[in-house]
Amino acid sequence: MSVEALLQRLEWTVLRRLDGLLQGDHKTLFRGSGLELADLREYQAHDDVRHIDWNVTARMQSPYVREHQEDREISAWFLLDLSGSMDFGSTGRSKREVMLDFVAVMAKLLMQRGNRIGALILTPTAPSGFQHIPARMGRRHLLHVMHTVQTAPRAAAPHLTDLNHWLASANGLLKRRASVFVISDFMGPTDWAAEMGALGRRHDTVAVRLFDPVEMSLPNAGLMMLKDSETSEQLLLDTADPQFRKRYASLVAEREQDVQTTFAQSGVDGLELSTEEDLAQALIRFSELRKRRMWRA
């Protein structure tokens, strides 16, 4: 499917649903960075208490909040992991395809709010290890980003994903405050908490973790030949052996603990997205997560 046809399909099947489901809560998806005072109004239940104007509240004898003019010059950046493991999918959709859908929908929502979008794509085929697409506006630019993700070549030789170096590169590249989406399956070493945390302190950062159900729970499918997408190592496994599946589940639980600990240390918002999950519902869940975080703050 061409990227133009894909975007049109997503506009009809996802974006139209979001317009009804979010019911005006788009602001919980994105945070403006402007400081210019636009208005004062009475406090409502969903408002951030940090925006209460205490001087006006004292005079009016009821809580009032400040509304700020959002900075329309803010950019949104997509940090996209296109390493070999992102091409895996057991349900008919690979993690790369889910990433493409997420980027298209989120970028469209962001551009409707006046934001430019750019991308920093981690790909083993690029000479520097990643590809930089400058932030711009417009449908043609979005289609260019989508086409780049869709057609990025797979690595022909074994490689190891270095998320730490990729995030460090993003920290050096993104000078002005931005909205940043780090989209990856976060396979490999979990040594990126410091760089992710540094990104989160400078920018409004969301980590989107893509996964496939088979990666979490190995099915009973008899003998299977599996290949590591990054090292090219091949193993013949007997998935009918209950002891083997038990050991696999133990290793998955151990890795999950490591990943969740690293996310907690980095302190950024996170969204878990499965290859078999409905994208609109995932974004509604993300909106609710952001809203709860704002209330707790």
* Number of separate helices: 9
The percentage of residues in β strands lies in 15-25%
Report how far the terminal alpha carbons are from each other: 43 Å
The structural class is alpha/beta
Can you characterise this structure?
The strands form three sheets. This protein has a six-stranded mixed sheet with strand order 5-4-3-6-7-10, sandwiched between helices. The protein has a two-stranded antiparallel ribbon with strand order 1-2. Strands 8-9 form a two-stranded antiparallel sheet. It has nine helices and ten strands. Helix content is 42%, strand content 22%.
Short description:
This protein is an alpha/beta fold and 297 residues long. Helices cover 42% and strands 22% of the residues.
